[in-house]
């Protein structure tokens, strides 16, 4: 494309983003209590995030999970799958590759100890091939319906403490959630910016989560492109402070489309389109629920809190409802592809349905 065409497209994308911003309230709305299905449907229709108070008031999880005695007696020596990384960055672009965590099954009580310990030990600076000299970062972040009702989830003993769905969302959307996920983490772990094709209802049970939101009309600023998929691999298990961590490419090789820009520390010289991006920061405290609409980019930071029985954790549960695919989905895709054209990123063949859902 000529540079004239590029600058016209960039100007129009920036104008579209500004217009969308002007149509949204300056502050993310905070609702004093659960909305009716109709009120919630209006938020979904407008693709507008909001924070909702009071949803978890009657959930046993919101009181019981704040006690170590309760959690340990409910989980009765069970092991759970935990994402382990040397640096707290799972599913993120590190050293030019998209790096997935090492997955370890560990006793649930040990997880609680590790999360508590991490409080006074921030993640060390790390490069692949190096020992960190410190224990790694643990995060339960599997997003595979790990609190689902299939009956074979590792967290089954906690199922009765949360509802199977969010009633106003199920009524408004006319469907049950595709997945219910539980998250146990600490401030050392964060989630890199990405978007999902789900309406997300995310309830914080302990600690505080900070969502850095990128509106769909600003996703073109993130320079999404395919990265070689890799994994963190520790030199030994059990993992200790002198474990050497490497990043190893997956075999057979594959790529994962992912954002190139870190919205918190953007390298605007390298990624100049990011100057059109105005992330929306939303803080969600224990007891609050975020409605995170589909297709909004989000990066998530967390702060754990001291809980009963001497442990620290940030705990959350989220409900993923499949989005409706239609004109809005196509318009967002068009913006992202035009941004890639301006940035000189070539289009790629999708390797799986997640990377670029074509709904012809
Ligand atoms: O809590 C987190 O770390 C990430 C949450 C997230 O990405 C999601 O719910 O889609």
From TrEMBL:
One Pfam family of this chain: Cupin_8
Protein name: JmjC domain-containing protein 7
Superkingdom assignment: Eukaryota
Domain JmjC: 137-336
Species classification: Eukaryota, Fungi, Fungi incertae sedis, Chytridiomycota, Chytridiomycota incertae sedis
């Amino acid at each position: 494309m000529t540079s004239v065409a590029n600058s016209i497209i960039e100007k129009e994308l920036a104008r579209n983003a500004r217009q969308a911003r002007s149509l949204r309230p300056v502050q993310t709305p905070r609702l004093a209590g659960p909305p009716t299905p109709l009120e919630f449907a209006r938020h979904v229709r407008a693709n507008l995030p909001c924070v909702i108070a009071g949803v978890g008031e009657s959930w046993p999880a919101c009181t019981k999970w704040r006690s170590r005695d309760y959690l340990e007696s409910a989980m009765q020596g069970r092991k759970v799958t935990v994402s382990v990384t040397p640096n707290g960055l799972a599913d993120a672009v590190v050293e030019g590759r998209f790096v997935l965590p090492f997955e370890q099954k560990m006793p649930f009580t040990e997880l609680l100890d590790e999360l508590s310990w991490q409080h006074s030990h921030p993640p060390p600076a790390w490069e692949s091939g190096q020992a960190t000299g410190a224990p790694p970062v643990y995060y339960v972040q599997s997003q595979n319906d790990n609190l689902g009702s299939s009956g074979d989830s590792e967290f089954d003993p906690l199922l009765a403490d949360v509802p199977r769905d969010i009633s106003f969302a199920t009524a408004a959307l006319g469907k049950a959630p595709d997945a219910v996920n539980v998250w146990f983490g600490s401030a050392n772990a964060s989630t890199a910016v990405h978007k999902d094709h789900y309406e997300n209802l995310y309830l914080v049970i302990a600690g505080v989560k900070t969502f850095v939101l990128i509106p769909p009309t600003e996703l073109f600023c993130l320079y999404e492109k395919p990265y070689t998929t890799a994994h963190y691999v520790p030199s030994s298990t059990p993992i200790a402070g002198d474990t050497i961590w490497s990043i190893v490419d997956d075999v057979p090789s594959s790529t994962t489309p992912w954002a190139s820009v870190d919205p918190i520390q953007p390298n605007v010289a390298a990624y100049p389109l990011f100057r059109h991006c105005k992330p929306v920061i939303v803080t969600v405290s224990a007891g609050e629920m975020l409605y995170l609409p589909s297709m909004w980019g989000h990066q998530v930071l967390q702060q754990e809190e001291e809980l009963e029985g001497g442990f620290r954790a940030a705990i959350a549960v989220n409900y993923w409802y499949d989005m409706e695919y239609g004109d809005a989905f196509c318009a967002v895709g068009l913006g992202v592809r035009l941004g890639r054209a301006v940035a000189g990123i070539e289009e790629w063949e999708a390797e799986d349905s997640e990377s670029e859902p074509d709904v012809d």
